[in-house]
From TrEMBL:
<dbReference type="Pfam" id="PF02634">
    <property type="entry name" value="FdhD-NarQ"/>
</dbReference>
<comment type="similarity">
    <text>Belongs to the FdhD family.</text>
</comment>
<dbReference type="GO" id="GO:0097163">
    <property type="term" value="F:sulfur carrier activity"/>
</dbReference>
<keyword id="KW-0501">Molybdenum cofactor biosynthesis</keyword>
<keyword id="KW-0963">Cytoplasm</keyword>
<feature type="active site" description="Cysteine persulfide intermediate">
    <location>
        <position position="116"/>
    </location>
</feature>
<protein>
    <recommendedName>
        <fullName>Sulfur carrier protein FdhD</fullName>
    </recommendedName>
</protein>
<dbReference type="GO" id="GO:0005737">
    <property type="term" value="C:cytoplasm"/>
</dbReference>
<dbReference type="GO" id="GO:0006777">
    <property type="term" value="P:Mo-molybdopterin cofactor biosynthetic process"/>
</dbReference>
<dbReference type="InterPro" id="IPR003786">
    <property type="entry name" value="FdhD"/>
</dbReference>
<dbReference type="InterPro" id="IPR016193">
    <property type="entry name" value="Cytidine_deaminase-like"/>
</dbReference>
<dbReference type="GO" id="GO:0016783">
    <property type="term" value="F:sulfurtransferase activity"/>
</dbReference>
<comment type="function">
    <text>Required for formate dehydrogenase (FDH) activity. Acts as a sulfur carrier protein that transfers sulfur from IscS to the molybdenum cofactor prior to its insertion into FDH.</text>
</comment>
Length: 278
């Protein structure tokens, strides 16, 4: 934790992530199943409404903080005073001493995006991106395989109910923090908020996601200072162009022993290929 005087005030903060339901299968038989919960969370900054996110609700404090930071609404963790979560009114109120006079102007500049569970970025989202300088990673193929094996132990909500994305901050093949949400951007914002609060650097980290690697995902991971992005899903054209510009090693379609390196292959030591084992 940083030296900020932040006070987390939780009101009805714990909510179920899944609920039990019944469904009828193809044979007309009743099946007891679980489905993922989805609930609105309206984020307020100094009591001004910013956005309503649809979320699983796993770590709402970190989600709200990470969202505001990634969108450029706040930047100084030491100016934070409190985070108030109240599920009875579906709200997350962040109080900061930081100057927020420019919030209204940023809210007037919005772009509808491809993000699931979010879908909008505001003016300020791109601020500082061109100044980001990421370290050059060194990564072994065997480490990727180890990470993919270890990540299979997570995704609890997905295994139980489906309908969610998962993201993780990893170091080598170890998962430091993992979160699931109905939208992949909610999950990355949650992890960004945690890292920001805890003063964690990203230079020696790998970011894993089950979602596709769009421009938004690349920018958010770059803002976290993480130089390696690993996904079980695919890549978009703008996501790839930004990864190339920012120097992010981009690995996609990663599952089992298969993966595709779209950028940064020169930083990977292929120590587990068939040729290297002969």
């Amino acid at each position: 934790m940083t030296d900020s005087k932040l006070h987390l005030i939780k009101t009805s903060a714990e909510v179920p992530l899944t609920i039990a339901v019944t469904a009828i299968d193809e044979n007309g038989q009743v099946q007891d199943k679980y489905i993922a919960c989805e609930r609105p969370l309206t984020i307020y900054l100094n009591w001004q409404p910013i956005v309503t996110l649809m979320t699983l609700g796993a770590r709402p404090e970190a989600l709200a903080l990470g969202y505001l930071k990634n969108q450029g609404f706040i930047s100084d963790v030491n100016q934070l005073e409190s985070v108030i979560i109240d599920w009875e009114v579906s709200s997350a109120a962040i109080i900061t001493q930081e100057n927020t006079d420019s919030v209204q102007a940023k809210l007037s500049e919005k772009t509808v995006t491809t993000g699931c569970g979010q879908g909008t970025v505001f003016g300020g989202f791109m601020d500082g991106v061109e100044d980001i300088r990421l370290p050059t990673p060194t990564l072994k193929q065997s480490t990727i395989y180890g990470l993919l094996k270890n990540i299979s132990q997570y995704n609890d909500t997905y295994k139980n109910a489906g309908a969610v994305h998962g993201c993780g901050v990893c170091q080598q093949d170890q998962i430091l923090s993992f979160v699931e949400d109905v939208g992949r951007h909610n999950a990355v914002d949650t992890l960004a908020g945690e890292m920001w609060l805890n003063g964690q650097g990203g230079g020696d980290k790998i970011f894993y996601t089950t979602g596709r690697l769009t421009s938004e995902m690349v920018i958010k991971v770059a803002k976290m200072g993480i130089p390696v992005l690993l996904s079980r899903s695919g890549v978009t054209q703008m996501g790839l162009e930004l990864a190339q510009k920012l120097g992010i090693t981009m690995i996609a379609r990663a599952k089992g022993r298969h993966f595709l390196v779209y950028n940064g292959a020169q930083h990977i030591h292929f120590d587990a290929t068939k040729e290297s084992q002969d």
